[in-house]
Design brief:
Structural class: alpha/beta
Helix content: 40-55%
Strand order of the largest sheet: 4-3-5-12-6
Strand content: 15-25%
Number of strands: 12
Order of helices and strands: HHHHEEHEHEHEEEHEHEHEHEEH
Length: 307
Amino acid sequence: MTVDTTPQLLNRLRMRQVALLLAIDERGTLRAAASHLGLSQPAATKMLHELELTLGQPLFDRVGRGLKATGAGDIALAYFRGVRGTMESLNRELQELRRGGSGRLRVGSIMAASPADLTEALIHIKAQFPLLAVKIDVGTSDRLMEGLDEGSLDLVIGRVPAQSGDDYTFRPLAEEALSVIVAVDHPLAGKRSVDFAALQAYHWILQPHGSPMREVVEQEFRSRHTPLPRGLIETASILTTTNLIARTDMVAIIPQAVASRYEKHGLLSIVPYRLRAELASYGTIVRRDRPAGLAASRFLEILHSAR
């Protein structure tokens, strides 16, 4: 039977030790970390030793004049960055309340959720909390998840990484279809059908490697036993993508919800080509080890109440 030693760890762990560990990781040496925290080097050395005894493993190896995290150190750092993010989030919300506001909400969202889910939820949350300060960060799921892990985001509307374990709570919102797009005067615009070979005659704009949308495109090329086009432009910006599409004969893939709106206003043309692979459902993502604040909890309720 495994004994839960978490209570003992919480009793022995001190926030000053956490701050020291993060400072060593950021500054590379114990001397620089100690100076940053206003500690003497002997005091910092003793504190690091006590932390290693508490966790039961060495956290750094000496490399030249600096320190490099061990495997155990990397694991501890990943968790302690989350602790720092939680404390920063708490501090920001308290400061907003002191200034007479209604707190702060930081949301990360993929582009597909912006036209409907995100917009509607923002309208409702601002109606309930007019003084709530809201920050929206739009990007790819992989980049947004980094912000969630570090604590710079309270929640993400996107997709959980394939190998994420049980660190997150995911609640699905919707499917996301993709569209191949070109300029309105492109040779492929207005065609009744377009095959894969026809698309190869043009340069491509793709999202950066590692994003779910990019993976779908790469699967398409692999299934056709075709290498990715040479001379790619890689960007997560829908605005940059659509601007390039409008002025060149390039081909790109963006969420159908966004493409349909652009096409409706005569800004681009959707090519009648269906990708073989599909994106997984997107939804709301929060960390299990970080309690959602009042505003984040209400925002999640609003998002899912319409489902």
